[in-house]
Predict the structure of dTDP-4-dehydrorhamnose 3,5-epimerase family protein.
Amino acid sequence: MKATEVPEISGAYLFEPTPHADERGFFCRTFDADVVRSVGLDPAAFVQDSVSRSARGVLRGLHLRSGAGEAKLVRCSYGEIFDVVVDLRPDSPTYLGRAFFELSGETQATVYVPAGCAHGFQSLTETSDVSYRIDRPHDPAEDVTIAFDDPDLAVPWPLPAASMSARDRKAPSLAEVLKRREG
């Protein structure tokens, strides 16, 4: 497994496993504490694992947590997704930077999303399963959502949004979210 820094988002990493394939399929390590530690992250900091299943075109995000934020490892374990990370940390050298990834069950690559960054994805296949390893227990009172189609972010979603939660559909603009954070 190798770790590569994501240049558009300070402190973000892409972890790419080395699959061992044969006629049966493949086997690969999707989490390695030593590799995580090698880039300065504490593997013991992750306290919760979650999974979501989405149909083609489903869009989830853009989400982040208020307060101390939430760091997470995101991996598409089945299917394929278009994954988005936006840096919303005012003191970051990559503030408002965006990074896009195609994550899939074929590659099993994992993106590390630092606390203070927004995250979202769109399912590109009929079924996609996304696994999250999160560093804080979920507190719905800290949920923040930003409009997926915010013109200031201009995320190039590859498909029309087939379905999304009511919360995501009614999400405020990036400017509104930033104004609330300042006030």
